[in-house]
Amino acid sequence: MSSTRQGPGDMSPGPRPALATVEELQARIDEVNPLIDAVCTPNPAALTEAARLDTERDDGRIRGPLHGMAVLVKDNIDTADLPTTAGSLVLADQPPPPHDAPLVRRLREAGCVILGKTNLSEWANFRGSASSSGWSGYGGLTRNPYALNRSAGGSSSGSGSAVAAGLADLAVGTETNGSIVCPAALNGVVGLKPTVGLVPQQGIVPISHSQDTAGPMTRTVSQAAALLTVLTGSSTDYLENCRGEDLSGVRIGVPRGPLWGYSRGLDRVTEEALELLSRCGATLVDHLSLPTPGSDEDQLNVLCHELKVDLAAYLATRKDGGPRTLADLIAFNQEHADVELRWFGQELFERAETTEGLDSPVYVAARLAALRAGRDGIDNLLAENQLDALAMPSYSPAWTIDLINGDHVLGSSSSHAALAGYPLISVPSGLVEGLPVGITFSGTGRSDATLIRLAHAFETARIKAHGPFPTPEFRQWV
Fold first, then answer.
1. Which of 136, 179, 396, 414 is catalytic?
2. Cα(237)–Cα(232) distance, rounded to whole angstroms?
3. Which of 88, 131, 133, 155 is catalytic?
4. Which whole-number Å values give the CA distances from 219 to 149, 223, 326, in the listed order?
5. If pLDDT is split at 50, 70 and 90, which confidence band does 9 have?
6. Can you give the pLDDT at residue 16?
7. Radius of gyration of the chain (CA)
8. Is the Cβ–Cβ distance between 158 and 38 less than 8 Å?
């Protein structure tokens, strides 16, 4: 059982794009999704939407390069015609939100078919300290199609797993700290976390307004660029930055230290990726160092303070008589502990409930420290070495799923950019014992176009050197 990978420039879904594509993908979901639980809510109106878009195409109205393309949307993003649960049973029985999130409205206006909603780590992996990525009370446990007993990463687990499994070429995830680039790396797909603020945050179940953003998860960098153009709703055409593999004149920094060394296989594949970048003409400035990304306490204080305030503001938009506060969610979980709290607790929710608002001196100091650790660390390194971007290993190969003890994350590339609100893109770089790994490109704020150019050049060079990225086989990893 396998899927066919498209090349970097393949944006066309076929002669009858919408209807034929949706029928094929729905059959694929019926076949494969029971193995991986990536799609939690299929859209029953997808075929109707597809037929309407085909009629528009026949009449000469083509809305753009994504006209007729099917897209899956993470289940913490509001859709007025489908449930939005954040993976929690407390929202599962509530009516759908009254309005589409602005980014969903933009997808529809661009001619995309909403194929369904993808599972996620419940509450975007910010409820308990021993969580297992990919598990939610509503959607169950999403699995990695390359290794069914290994994690799909979090929290955009379903989006990454679904794209890897061929359930759609395009998906939307969200990231606070690693929630796009982690499942992208573990599932062998492209994951782009934009600069915070480029994509509207309204209609997304929040953790942190200073760090949250939605972003593309796709098969190829060109697809991510085209999807980002739609999600931002701007006049910038990010697809124009997919220019081939020539990186002459580009300077890329390689921070070492704790960003390396937690997986020998990942380090080996990343060294090979750096060699490819050098062959593309990029100048590599190696053996650099990023400062420690602030204290864990500061990071938690920012997220906990913002969660309590931001979540209450979001719940107020759900005009359905459901929960209104973080305290309501905590109480629901306690009342339904046999299901919701079976595998891990809600210590982070409980800590957030004790916070005292965004005027709190604790929050103000923590937010300032986080900004300095993230932005100064990245910007100073770029400026001192006249760099266009940084390159580093993304995440370790997928760890074994362990619902009892939780995730076993060895290291990541996302923390500095998370604190800064800066962009990242993870691109598949190879396999370690059959498990996908990726390389991450990181930059300053609003450097999304630059990162897309670098990622596309690397992707093009990797395909030329090694062929298309291997497809998953849906087996247990041994």
1. 179
2. 10
3. 155
4. 22, 7, 36
5. very low
6. 61
7. 21
8. yes
Nearest to residue 237, comparing CAs of 228, 246, 245? 228
74 DSSP β-pair partners: 118
* Amino acid at the residue 112: C
Mean pLDDT of the region 410-429: 97
Q: Is 74 a catalytic residue?
A: yes
Place of tokens 């969660």: 307
Q: Report pLDDT digits (tens) over 292-325.
A: 998 999 999 999 999 999 999 999 999 878 999 9
pLDDT averaged over every residue in the chain = 95
| pLDDT value of position 8 | 36
Output the six-digit token pair for 57. 């195409």
3-class SS string, the chain: CCCCCCCCCCCCCCCCHHHHHHHHHHHHHHHHHHHHCCEEEECCCHHHHHHHHHHHHHCCCCCCCCCCCEEEEECCECECCECCCCCCHHHHCCCCCCCCCHHHHHHHHCCCEEEEEECCCHHHHCCCCCCCCCEECCCEECEECCEEEEECCCCCHHHHHHHHCCCCCEEEEEECCCCCHHHHHHHCCEEEECCCCCCCCCCECCCCCCCCEEEEEECCHHHHHHHHHHHHCCCCCHHHHCCCCCCCCCEEEEECHHHCCCCHHHHHHHHHHHHHHHHCCCEEEEEECCCCCCCHHHHHHHHHHHHHHHHHHHHCCCCCCCCCCHHHHHHHHHHCHHHHCCCCCCHHHHHHHCCCCCCCHHHHHHHHHHHHHHHHHHHHHHHHCCCCEEEEECECCCCECCCCCCCCCCCECCHHHHHHCCCEEEEEEEEECCEEEEEEEECCCCCHHHHHHHHHHHHHHHHHHHCCCCCCCCCCCC
- The answer to whether the peptide bond before residue 222 is cis (omega within 30 degrees of 0) is no
Of the candidates 3, 74, 222, 415, the residue annotated as catalytic is 74
**Residue listed under structure tokens 């995730």:** 407
The 10s digit of each residue's pLDDT in 352-363 is 999 999 999 999
Question: Residue length, the chain?
Answer: 478
- At position 138, the amino acid (one-letter code) is Y
List, for residues 201-256, the tens digit of each pLDDT value: 999 999 999 999 999 999 999 999 999 999 999 889 999 999 999 999 999 999 99
Q: Report residue 230 as tokens.
A: 């739609």
Distance between CA atoms of residues 144 and 473, nearest Å: 10
